[in-house]
Amino acid sequence: MKHYTYIIFLSLFYCSCNTEPTNSTNNLSTNQTSISSSAILIFKKEKQLEIWNDGAKINTYPINLDSKFPIGEFEATNSKKGIKIHFPNQFYKEKSYQIDFDPIIKVTKNEFIEIDLTNIPILVFPNDARNGQSFVASFSSPHWMCEIYAKMNLYLLEYN
Q1: What sign does the CA torsion over 122, 127, 129, 134 have?
Q2: How many CA atoms lie within 13 A of 152 on its CB side?
Q3: How would DSSP label each residue in 72-126?
Q4: What average pLDDT does the structure give for the chain?
Q5: Structural domains for the chain
Q6: Is 9 helix (H, G, I), strand (E, B) or coil?
Q7: Whole-structure pTM over 0.70, yes or no?
Q8: Which residue, 28, 96, 108, 117, is the most exposed by fewest CB within 10 angstroms?
Q9: Is residue 28 scored above 60 in pLDDT?
Q10: Contacts of 54 (CB under 8 A, 6+ apart)
């Protein structure tokens, strides 16, 4: 029993401490690890949405979203209530993982402009790791959460 505890602890420690980008993207997803120069970044902990275009941050907005909101890369459409992500994406389909959550990202500022979300990735992060933090998995996270964190860390490097 002690061996299993150590393995779980070491796995979680590795997830939270290994933030170095790697050249290997094996088994992460069938999607490429390069994102277009336009993207919408969502930071769950900070409750912020950033709009990026041509490698430059355009604006930041406060948001409300479900605490169970998944982490990863998603496609989305506009809805009357906000931005609706399409779930599950390819990664979650491969893992046969379902989450019961509200798929709407609600922007709390009135001046938010509607954007044509065609071909613009929505990148949802657990927190903003650009300030020296790392993504930390909880004990209730699935064992494959490190795969998502590694991929999302690579994406975040493109938006500094």
Answers
A1: negative
A2: 27
A3: EEE-EEE-SSSEEE-SS-HHHHHTT-------EEEE-STTPPP---TT--EEEES
A4: 77
A5: 2-20+36-157 (2.40.440)
A6: helix
A7: yes
A8: 96
A9: no
A10: 37, 38
